[in-house]
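quick one
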Amino acid sequence: MTEGVFRRLGVADLERLVVLERARPRPWTRDQLETILTDEAVCVLGVEVEGRLAGHAVVARQPFEAELQAMLVAPNMRRRGLATSLLTAVIDQTLRWESERLLLEVRASNSGAIALYRQAGFCEDGRRRGYYPALESPALKTRAEPQAGGGVATWGGVGPGGAPSAGAEREDAILMSRRLL
Ligand SMILES: CC(C)(COP(=O)(O)OP(=O)(O)OC[C@H]1O[C@@H](n2cnc3c(N)ncnc32)[C@H](O)[C@@H]1OP(=O)(O)O)[C@@H](O)C(=O)NCCC(=O)NCCS
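structure w/ coenzyme A:
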């Protein structure tokens, strides 16, 4: 278990966030990251290890619930408990918001993330068939790093991990939630 320093990220962290996002097959763009960092209804939590940004989680406040929109840990820092600790920090934030439930969506193939969420008390609520574009689409091959993964980002269905797009092979989204209050 690696000890990290957890804090809310701000616009001053934008460049470091852009670099960390490159570890994702479909990185959020600089503009998208800047938008979430300046949105008062969104909290971007980061974890630093030895002064480096090692992971982040994006959680959005909704009228009664909160949505975990993204979670990412740098590849060389995985399996050290950082995502588990980030989830604890996310839950602390949603409790301060008095959210009733924390919701998320995850690619059906992302078994590592699904195991992480189950371990953190999330239950499966259902499935959205063919929600995600295939990760192996030609456009992605030019920039994707060779890793499994998938985003929870939806931004109301238009986020980089969740935007429906044309293409034959698509992947289901697993809908999960955890009751908070
Ligand atoms: C998913 C992700 C955030 C997990 O981060 P992490 O810091 O490695 O997670 P943790 O170390 O806290 O793991 C906690 C538990 O989750 C499960 N888990 C995490 N990654 C796993 C993997 N690749 N395979 C199987 N189980 C995994 C395990 O049960 C693990 O406990 P253990 O290490 O004692 O076996 C990280 O792999 C990642 O950034 N992946 C790419 C982006 C992504 O998929 N984000 C989630 C989108 S929904």
